[in-house]
Amino acid sequence: MAKIGKLSGTAEVKLSSHYYDETRAFFSLGGIQLKKEIVSILQRFTTETIDDSMIEIPVYTHLGDYALPCFPFAKKLRQSPILIAQELAAIIQDESIEKTEAVNGYVNIFMKRKSFALSLLTTLQKQGKQYGSSNVGAGGIVSIDMSSPNIAKPFSMGHLRSTVIGNSIALLHEKSGYQPVKINHLGDWGTQFGKLLVAYRLWGSEKKVREAPIETLLALYVRFHEEAKIDDSLNDKGRAAFKSLEDGDTEALALWEWFRTESLKEFQRIYDLLGVSYDSFQGEAYYNDKMDSIVEELHERNLLVASDGALVVDVGEHLPPCLIKKSDGATLYATRDITAAIHRKHTYHFVKSLYVVGNEQSLHFEQLKIVLNKMGYAWSDAIQHIPFGLILKDGKKLSTRKGKIILLEEVLKEAILLAEKTIEEKNPQLINKKEVAKSVGVGAVIFSDLKQHRKHDIEFDLKKMLQTEGETGPYVQYTFARACSILRKAPAQIAFEVKDVNDYEWELIKALKQFPSVVLRATAEYDPSILAKYAVHLAQSFNSFYGNVQIMNDSKHLSYRIGLVQSVVIVLEESLRLLGIKAPTEM
RNA sequence: GCGCUCGUAGCUCAAUUGGAUAGAGCACUUGACUACGAAUCAAGAGGUUGCAGGUUCGAGUCCUGCCGAGCGCACCA
């Protein structure tokens, strides 16, 4: 009943408080600390307690750069917020503040643009790519379970999400001072292989598999499920075949090994395209000989219960029990995942263990954590499911079993082809066309996935995915290339001087200033979309600046504007890198 | 039936975690390339935030109840 909601509610609270701690930690660091600076300035003028979280950035530029809403003080001071704001605005002054205004109960604060800009640009020049880096992770190891495609099946669009989200989360954690360990937990074990073995023995041919491994194996798998609908005994044969595999049948093992090798070859091609690498490929099969001792441990702790011939762990009234062994003695997904979790803890001593796995598996991870907790492992709290929405086609889930599937490789190829055509049209004398087309095409696909929040289901739309205009990867890449182009033509320089700051430049400077906190927030929330949206925002600010301000033909402002462009180049490139997207200097 | 995740412009998504006039992109209409890259920029139009209550100075955001969508609910992973 309501108990379930309560349980998951607790988990949510934990998550958000964790995020809050990291944000806190960030503001106490030496990097960007503007909110804190503002707080300490404001605090001098009132006895009321002011917190970082009370400072906000106004929606409109004409309302200032920062604002303090005075409503929370009203009740205690027994005075109208409008008056409080007026009083505060009248007395606040600081060398970094240009002016303050009281509007509708807000104190609006306008910063001194010149000194603000000078200090930011100086910081950026000094720190370069290190800008936005921090040590909130304090070197802690974070294992990330990601991608994890199933052997003998094609790499589908569904696995794209886990791969690119996981990759970006790893990069973000690294930037924030953690040590990520990327684990590709291959789906290379389980009843499905028993079914595949049966199908291969019944209808398969060695020659065909050699010619087109994945395609042939997929066809066999789909056929199995079609025929099993009519002949249920096939399912029993599949289960039996898996059992014999698990018991070490040499002929079955040889076939399995062969299927696995062929699959890995194909996957590697895609990972090369995406530019994703792994620290471990230990899939489910790796844990085959490690499960007995775990089952034994469960038994010793009196957690195993016999139920309809199977062995289960009771995880509470409101959840279905966690299945450890089937009635035929074979293991299950949960058995392997429990074993893997313990093995990872022993191997990596992680401070966090993340699982970038689809929304639909949240029950499994809930069970996993409870079982580990019942085993006495306090670190079960460090396990965190990072769910994401499904890729839907016509509003429905894609299903391998029904052969309803979209191949990632074909989507990527199409994207690259389109990028090639666009380059041919817009920049035909570009030197390394192929390489750039790859970066842009793949960038478009990755970005279209990362820019929306993880948890949303995505309706698959090839046209949208290949788009290069508007809020897209290629838009950000194009902005970067444009900025690089200016730097190529600009005179080399070291020092710069800020004469004045116009509105276009000011927007850009404020956007640059946000980067470190964006990185931290994206890390803490395991949400690359925050960074992707930021990258678009920064690119928009730059393009607006570019379209309205003469950079090269104004010697008075030249040095400072070049410095600004250099800063944009640094932050855009770093943003794209953290998303796992390449940034060509020309396109 | 129960649970999880959601519901914002025609479409895809934002909204600084409860703050000011709910913002972008796509598509549509219009304007700008002898200033640095037009994969761009500038402008226009587009809204009862699924519905109904509640909490408070203030709700797209929090609470309750409906309606709708997707996913999940032991021998698949």
Number of strands: 13
Q: Evaluate the radius of gyration.
A: 28 Å
CATH class assignment of the domain at 408-579: Mainly Alpha
State which percent range the strand residues make up. 5-15%
Query: Which structural class matches the secondary elements?
Result: alpha/beta
Question: How many helical elements?
Answer: 21
CATH topology of the domain at 408-579: Isoleucyl-tRNA Synthetase, Domain 1
Contiguous runs where pLDDT drops below 50 for at least 5 residues: 1-33
Overall shape: it is globular
The CATH architecture of the domain at 408-579: Orthogonal Bundle
Q: Give the distance, in angstroms, between the N- and C-terminal Cα atoms.
A: 57 Å
Q: Mean pLDDT, rounded to whole units?
A: 88
Proportion of residues in helical segments: 55-70%
The largest beta-sheet arranges its strands as 5-4-9-10
Q: Which superfamily, in CATH terms, is the homologous superfamily of the domain at 408-579?
A: Isoleucyl-tRNA Synthetase, Domain 1
Major β-sheet profile: 4 strands, parallel
